[in-house]
């Protein structure tokens, strides 16, 4: 019946057969038909009209048509991103409606007015001196990192930074990289696509387990110490000291500082790069601050890897587009980017609070992780025995996107969801979590049968 409603065989407004009649036609019990109607009502697809019977009131989102070209590459995240939905609670996206269009346009006009004809030629593959200087200043002010502009390599986001590192690390004798478990599936895929082997290292309430890292035999480790993805844990002081000692003994730390600027209920956490520049490769971007579409980020590596990384960047794309670099540099130097950060931080905090309230109301028993900072929450359903992929699929049939936690796990663990709250208004967050609650109740009832 769901399929018939979805494909229009039972259009919105049509009346379903009486339960007694359908039961006789299908030769099943009337109770079974009644239960089916009840489930359709719980998902908002039908409604009782008294003597008017049961009527179709909404169709679920139609499955997307098969693409004309190849299937989406990159795994489940890319596939999910391509699907239509009404409410997108996927993690990793800021409030794109807040992009500072006026400030960007004004900065672009000023930049264009000052360019010479020669400035439109090929740029420095390492990045324009203006942006490298601006990034150095930004990192000093916001992340406590003291870096010379010559150390900065401008990249097309953290994804490219990881891809470049995957190219140069084998030359430094590193072919196995430890990753956080749970940790970003996308980041792990970047390293593996570059030919590196990855091994999971557990994350607990204090962050990455450094003892397990030592036992893994990895020559490098990728981690998110300021706001671990997806748990939100901060790497604590003792673990930091242990990790830096591991780095000083020859290990390489790959620090993904993906959303450290977004914090609400705690003080900023210093970047590891600020403490040990010769054993930490540091990557960041404006994807969570302005917009992923800009594809602008930065990479700082130990001196022994710098020339190889610049050479890999040269062969990758000859450098990022110059105009966008110069506009971003102007926003950073003028203080406009800090003003934008203050504005979106207030907005994101309100949306975070709205999601916390909605989770408390609609997902009773769910445990919330990582609420003090970032752009997402992780919720776990401790003790539940259903697959979180099934819950996410149920939510998608109701028009809501969310990441199942298991996508980002290597080892098994409790089911959960990763819910982004930055991209949509509070009313949309409330509705989305309410629909998740509906899917959860149905899933739990089905598991008990």
From TrEMBL:
<feature type="domain" description="HTH gntR-type">
    <location>
        <begin position="1"/>
        <end position="59"/>
    </location>
</feature>
<dbReference type="InterPro" id="IPR004839">
    <property type="entry name" value="Aminotransferase_I/II_large"/>
</dbReference>
<dbReference type="InterPro" id="IPR036390">
    <property type="entry name" value="WH_DNA-bd_sf"/>
</dbReference>
<dbReference type="Pfam" id="PF00155">
    <property type="entry name" value="Aminotran_1_2"/>
</dbReference>
<protein>
    <submittedName>
        <fullName>GntR family transcriptional regulator</fullName>
    </submittedName>
</protein>
<comment type="similarity">
    <text>In the C-terminal section; belongs to the class-I pyridoxal-phosphate-dependent aminotransferase family.</text>
</comment>
<dbReference type="GO" id="GO:0003700">
    <property type="term" value="F:DNA-binding transcription factor activity"/>
</dbReference>
<keyword id="KW-0805">Transcription regulation</keyword>
<dbReference type="InterPro" id="IPR015421">
    <property type="entry name" value="PyrdxlP-dep_Trfase_major"/>
</dbReference>
<dbReference type="GO" id="GO:0003677">
    <property type="term" value="F:DNA binding"/>
</dbReference>
<dbReference type="GO" id="GO:0030170">
    <property type="term" value="F:pyridoxal phosphate binding"/>
</dbReference>
<dbReference type="InterPro" id="IPR051446">
    <property type="entry name" value="HTH_trans_reg/aminotransferase"/>
</dbReference>
<keyword id="KW-0238">DNA-binding</keyword>
<dbReference type="InterPro" id="IPR000524">
    <property type="entry name" value="Tscrpt_reg_HTH_GntR"/>
</dbReference>
<keyword id="KW-0663">Pyridoxal phosphate</keyword>
<dbReference type="InterPro" id="IPR036388">
    <property type="entry name" value="WH-like_DNA-bd_sf"/>
</dbReference>
<dbReference type="Pfam" id="PF00392">
    <property type="entry name" value="GntR"/>
</dbReference>
<dbReference type="InterPro" id="IPR015424">
    <property type="entry name" value="PyrdxlP-dep_Trfase"/>
</dbReference>
<keyword id="KW-0804">Transcription</keyword>
